[in-house]
Queue: 3 jobs
Job 1
Amino acid sequence: MFTRSTVAVATLLLMGAAPLAQAADKPTDPQIAHIAYTAGVIDVEAAKLAIEKSRNKEVVDFANDMVRDHEAVNVQALDLVKKLKVTPEDNATSQALSKAAADERVKLAKLDGAAFDKAYVDNEVAYHKQVNGALETVLIPSAENAELKSLLETGLKIFQGHQQHAEHVAGMLK
Amino acid sequence: MRTALPVPKRCLWIALALTIVAAPVQAETIEVTIDKLVFSPASIEAKVGDTIEWVNKDAFAHTATVKGGWEVMIPPKASASLTLKTAEAVDYFCRFHPNMKGRLVVWP
């Protein structure tokens, strides 16, 4: 099925930089917390760039929504790791995400106007799809702690909403 | 305390009777809870004059938005309400998280 293979591809992409043996292992809770937090920070940074560069109201509104929601999720994530006395642990997936985001930022920084808006929003659609795929297939099933699992599930619903919102904005830019 | 009631009892009865005549059906407040991005109950029925109160338990801002119609902003960990003025049957959603959906039927 198309949807299932897309998710599988997205998961592979997310895990891409990790050695195969490591990708087959499920991530630990400290690693999951690190991945989820990193994914949020990346989207906040991209949104801040959009707020700075875009002149399109729909795009800027969307970017503001991303900053607000992802910062709120990350505050909850930090509160939770503090409560659980877990230290988020850097890992290959987090590093791959950060590397891909840095490349994307370089690409976006060179664009302006409508070209920037389109590239930013298209990337938001793809990025949320990728993160949602990883949440559904790897992160949520791997989480051991019930509270962490529950936060990830809420995060998934939020990000699925963002994906729909981004698709809506992408449709308006056409 | 008894001394706190200077109005004669008869006047109170008249006032009460007038209130009952003026508002044969008392307007109600219907509560919709938002928890983890779910409107609950998802579907509600109300009458014109009733108030819908959305109680947001999430740490995220939400909206109750009718496409081409009204919108209520519901800040994180707060409530917002809307008094229904027209009879209508509408689907509403959260503009920030369009996967959150609710339905409202307002009877005359």
Job 2
Amino acid sequence: MTRRQILKSRLLWAAPLALITMVGLGAAAKMRSPLPENLDLSLTRYSDAGVYETRLDTDMNPVSIGAMHVFTVTLKTRDGRPVEKAALTIDGGMPQHGHGLPTTPRVTADLGGGRYRVEGIKFNMPGWWTVTVHATSGAGSDETTFNLKL
Amino acid sequence: MKRSGIPYAAAGIIALVVLAGFSYKGGIFVNQNWSEEQKSLIASLSLDALPALPADPSNRVADDPRAAELGKALFNDRRLSANGKVACATCHLPDRQFQDGTPLGHGVGQTNRRTMPISGTAHAPFLFWDGRKDSQWAQALGPLESAVEHGSDRTALARQVAVHYRRDYERLFGPLPELTSLPDHASPEGNSAAKSAWPNMTEGEREAVNRVFANIGKAIAAFERTIKPRETRFDRYARSLQAGTAPNNGLSETEIAGLAIFIGKGNCINCHNGPLLTDNHFHNTGVPTVEGLPKDTGRALGALQVKNDPFNCRGRYSDAAPPDCTELNFMVSEGDELLRAYKPPSLRNVALRPPYMHAGQFRSLDEVVRHYNKAPPAPAGHSELEPLNLNDREVQALQAFLATLSEED
């Protein structure tokens, strides 16, 4: 083999080796579960089927790990009318870990004007959390999922 | 001369890394230029981040120094046991972080679980490995009438208080009830003789004895609230890092590498977070069963027990208004996630107290870290762990970091 051929052959297997290593590093990075890019952290969102505009007001900013939180949910129709006397359930979890909230939050007061107090929300780890508000009223049943970064 | 292609491969990797803008910060030779996110995580673990002692609305004497004094005496009193040989301090040794260094506790008999340390538990919403109690005072009651710990019972305990602590008790809690007509040994828990005597007492007598029993726990809890974590080498490092002064002061390169793994690829911080390095929740981490011990479902049973405990925050012996009992009111009480889930203990002083896990399954931190690295399937339920692929040096670095969480005398 000429010197040039040797160099070529080495480069031929060096490139896949480098790629394999890169894939390995990529897998390690994936295991550490970085937050997805462009995560929408807005706390006013439309519900999945567009029935509601839902707002989440947190009791502290930033939301802290380990504290028992009281949030306020404000529910409106798409044309901005408050949704009174809706039945709400709340759940959530960590999509990257496959587990739910460490608590079972629920509505503890209908504050009127489409506002509802939700107690018992806790986050016990840093990372990406979701909180989903399931709402049922005369306007229909729909759910809104919020992203939180702790 | 035959020459290897490895240098070319290495060059290729470097080129690709540079092209991809990839920077690998979790490596063993970690640089000390922590990112803002890492700095914030490190600060969150520091003792400086520990909030003030939370109020215990369920215990009105929690912060009364007289109660703490009485509680300390009760904590150390062997007369509160069936054989006169067992005190709280028998397993919760004050000079060993209030634990005993053995896989299972040894009172009158042998328990099925590892003795837990006490420091900082005033911050814990749920006590015991399975969280079957929701306050320090309710927790203190369990061992007193456990047949294998103190082995005592409620009327015997009330009598001991009447004989040895009447004055101190009554100035805190008011007059003791009349005890002379009651059976020597009676309790709804514990040994069979005590259990059979308990229903023969009137409801009023049972209620009065229960109240003395609860107050014993409240005094012990007032003492336990005074047992607080102290500053460690890690805390001093974290403080200097926040202050921007000599960030490497006090921790070796290996310890810093371990810290990077702890808050990064080791995923330790998922459950061991906050200044006490516990999330106070319950996790199945695939810890093996122990031959000879009864079936242990962890939080699955503990959740039911705390909900139905007459001494919980919502019970009649609690001083709290039920809406104050937020942890109990909003707890998760069922679901697959609870099966063989156990509370992550605080990692403060962890290197000083082998063996590890809820029944002392692992003899050393090395075994613990290798378990988490391997992530074997759980004997029941589903383990939350994923294999970490840490190499030997990383495993050792992580252990070196854990030793920086030890208090120094």
Job 3
Amino acid sequence: MASNASRPVQRRDLGLWLAAAAVSTSLLALAALLWVLLAQSWQAFAPAPVALLQWRDDAGEHSLLASVLAQDEQVLIVRGSEWQRRGDAYRRVLRSSLVHLSFPADALNLRLADGREILLRGSEQSWRGLDPQQRLVLPGADGEVPVRGADLVEVVAVNALSGWQRLGTGLQRALGFAGGTGGSGLFAALLGTVVLVMLMSVLVMPLGVLVALWLHEYAGNDQLARGLRAAIANLASVPSVIYGLFGLVLFVHGIGGSLDVLLSGTTAPVPHWGRGGLLWSALTLALLTLPVVVISVEEGLARVPPGLRQAALALGATRAEMLWRVVLPVARPALLTALILAVARAAGEVAPLMLVGAVKYAPALPLNGEFPYLHLSQQFMHLGHGVYDLALTGSDGPRDLAQAHATALLLLLVVIGLNASAIVVRNRLRERSRELSA
Amino acid sequence: MSAPAPVAAMPGGLLDGQELALQARGLSLDYGSRRALDAVDLAVPCRRVTALIGPSGCGKSSLLRCFNRLNDEIADCRIVGDVRVFGADAYAAELSLPELRRRVGMVFQKPNPFPQSVSENVAFGLRLAGLRARLELEDRVEAALRAAGLWEEVRDRLGESALRLSAGQQQRLVIARALAVEPQVLLMDEPASMLDPISTLRFEELVVALRERYSVLLVTHNMQQAARVADYTAYMQAGRLLEFDTTDRIFTNPRLRGTEDYITGKLARDEE
């Protein structure tokens, strides 16, 4: 086979195979990541079949309407209706203890606006046609619960669903999860993430560009500038949680605390600025991404043809005018590259945010119709923080874990979306400058 | 290197009675420890074309950039001597650098239009000077393009990118850009070296026409070009200005052997 091939060619082939293996390993890892996220997310939303269970144990005979999340030959893992759960949402039921197991076609899964689920039997039509104003009382283990018709967001006869209907219901639930506000949805976290990243961009870009301009155009190459450059490059590799700690001390306690004293005269019992908030988080992330921005903007500035600088100066431009009117416009694609890198780094950060403002549940959106519309001092929800929160501190074990994956998927989509839009803008700019240089 | 020329670079009385646009006296320039100009004396008469010739690296461009102080941008560049623009000290402390550069325009070797539209390029210097009125800007842009002999070719392409023009057009565009701010002097640093023969011819016609209103100091490697367009020619070698005379005399009867050798192409490369 390789009889005709000389040694160097064989060696090159080996390199090719190694490279191909590396590439496919990376692609496989990426595909696996996406697959896990998708599969787990589906677990969070797929309508599980509802079984009627009757079993007997030492305490006597039990009867339960429950969603069957998993089953094998010995065990069923079921989740009772929220009404019937008391602490233990999940239950392992041995098949051998079962007296009765059936999947009644009239089993209904009712979902309330706050995310709770109720399992019961009845007619889908009669629940669907409920007057939103009508008050009704649902039977629960903790007693009877008053509910209004409007609170019902979903009525599904789960056992009667076809495959496509199951998919549709799952997707609908996923959308509701992503878009819903309040405790049951991710919209607040989604908005918090996007607003945070945008605020961070608005803060870091001017600062980063100015620092890069100073370093590249004014500082020259003396010891101070070289030292600063080295310091900035090293800052890029400082672990993000350290920035969080720094932000907590400097922004939250330092600046925020002083602001409170300044504005209210005394240390307020309930700090307003002196606690984690959107602005402090954005500033912390801006600091975190500053080195990336400075380094890539500086590279962009270095690529501006010297002929253009000289032409501007020779026409009577001051240094500042030359930079503002010629160098920066020509370096625009590089600025966007810097922004893309900053967004990519910042959008996925969680650790520093836990110290300076991201919370599990914020009562109001960071951006809403109430004056002053953008609430800089407010704590906010964040997708990355949500992943951590759902995965580690959730009360509802497996379901929270599944929702953590769904949140992670959404975070991934947000990061990709933010990056993609920046890349589109950059490519458009490049096209324009290519047109200009054609 | 041979000893400095014993004769004065300029024959006495040559420029008597002429107004001088640019003047350098005892001008020396060092880049760090490297001496680029050594006690250069040069006078550029008003409304004439003066050519600066000499082997590569002899300091022609450095000398040129002393008059609009573009050398200031180079960190380790040191200048000693007297540089005057219309009699005023170009290195005076109270002098406004943008003001000086508006009076002393420059055209570079490589056409360097900004990546903007044709008209924006020409208007660049005007906007810097604070001109905002649209109609006046349009008029001045048109006048500058006409003066650079480009108007007929680009009148329908004013909004188009300057980088779409041909190299010859680009070079005339940057001349228009320099002319738009109505300088008194134009410094040209081998402006035709990147142009094809036809564009070069057009460029030379333009330079001859410019001499009606502007004083031009032209660095060139093209001997025929200097002979065709320049009234006066200065010969430089190794940082010294060795001979200055009317173009006619320089090309027909130079006083120095070195000048003659260079003009006739006999100068050995290692003497650069």
